[in-house]
Amino acid sequence: METPADFQLLQADGGLRAVLTGDWTSRTLGGAAERLRATMSDRKPKILDLTKVGRCDTSGAFAILRAAETAGAKAQVNARPETHRLIDLVAKAAEKADIPPPRRLSDWIVFLERLGRGLVNLGQDGFETLAFTGRILTATGRLFAHPHRFRWAPFVALAERAGLDALPIVAVTSFFIGAVIGLLGAHMLSQFGAQVFAVELIGIAVLREFCIIITALLLAGRSASSFAAEIGSMKMNQEIDAMQVMGVDPFEALVLPRFMALVAIIPLLTFVAAVAGLAGGMVVTWAVLGLSPDFFVQRMTDSVGVTPFWIGLSKAPVMAIVIAGIGCRQGMEVGGDVESLGRRVTAAVVHAIFSIIMIDAVFALVYMELNI
């Protein structure tokens, strides 16, 4: 049972004595500290008797010290040994000089520090990417050496979830992209009396670029974030550590099925995106320019051909590997808190989108140099 802090003044042979009673702790001080300080300032007792104090913590010791300082001359303190040690400890801590505020660095130094940290983080991220790639290659080599170890059940489930479930959104998005290209082409080419070339514009733009770009961007938003969140939550719950303890390689059980599923399903998604994009362009040219579907198909066959489609499809495996790799790697880097999971999922989507745009630009430069 805690007793509130209190005190009383007694006249003794040695002079006026302040006798403290009760528990002098942060929970029981109440207004006793301020009353003691005011009494010490007015009456200036010579002795502080703490022998009847029950419990005393640093808050109570500091309040007693402040009250003793207001008496002018240093008052004599009578207390039990443990209370004396606590008061001496608090007194030494209170005597230390205040810590000076940190020196404010100039903006130029702050900029250089942030630049240096960014370069260090970039180098560390590159090293971790190389380590992740090495482990993937090692797991792939083991899989080729022992094909029976491949996990078909998660491969099929992931192919359905990451690929087949994305067919509607890929088809609808590509349809409207093709329609927009058709509208722009019809409007611009009509000014030169070359409306018929809108078919070539739609065919080349959709087959060569937009079908794979739209597919990859949608997979970056769906699959990369999903892979990072799934593996990251397992990392938070220490399920991956448990797998390693049981002798199961997380790369074989978690990462490789996701790689294979995305690589296997992205050509189908690219094909669907190409068909939907051409359908959207065909509907617009039919409605706006009056070009029949038969004419659209014939002009596509004669003027465009299948080369743009194969060029777009050749990018699909690279996009799938990059998306799956970024998503799985960010999931493996998740720490033990939810904030880390959120950061890694966001990083997976952002890095995947950036990589898709950069890889498409590299492919464009390569095919331009090859005159394809």
Keywords:
5 strands; Transcription Regulator spoIIAA; alpha/beta; 2 domains; about 375 residues; elongated
Describe what this molecule looks like in 3D.
By secondary structure, the chain is an alpha/beta fold. The protein folds into 2 domains: 6-95, Transcription Regulator spoIIAA, CATH 3.30.750.24; 136-369, no CATH class. It has helices spanning 32-43, 58-69, 81-95, 107-145, 152-162, 167-190, 198-236, 239-245, 250-289, 293-304, 307-314, 316-332, 338-369, and strands spanning 6-12, 15-24, 47-49, 53-56, 76-78. Strand 2, helix 1 (32-43) and strand 3 form a beta-alpha-beta unit. Helix 5 runs parallel beside helix 9 and helix 7 (198-236) packs parallel to helix 11 (307-314).
Question: Mind sketching the topology for me?
Answer:
Layout: E1 6-12, E2 15-24, H1 32-43, E3 47-49, E4 53-56, H2 58-69, E5 76-78, H3 81-95, H4 107-145, H5 152-162, H6 167-190, H7 198-236, H8 239-245, H9 250-289, H10 293-304, H11 307-314, H12 316-332, H13 338-369
Parallel strand pairs: 2-3, 2-4, 3-5
Antiparallel strand pairs: 1-2
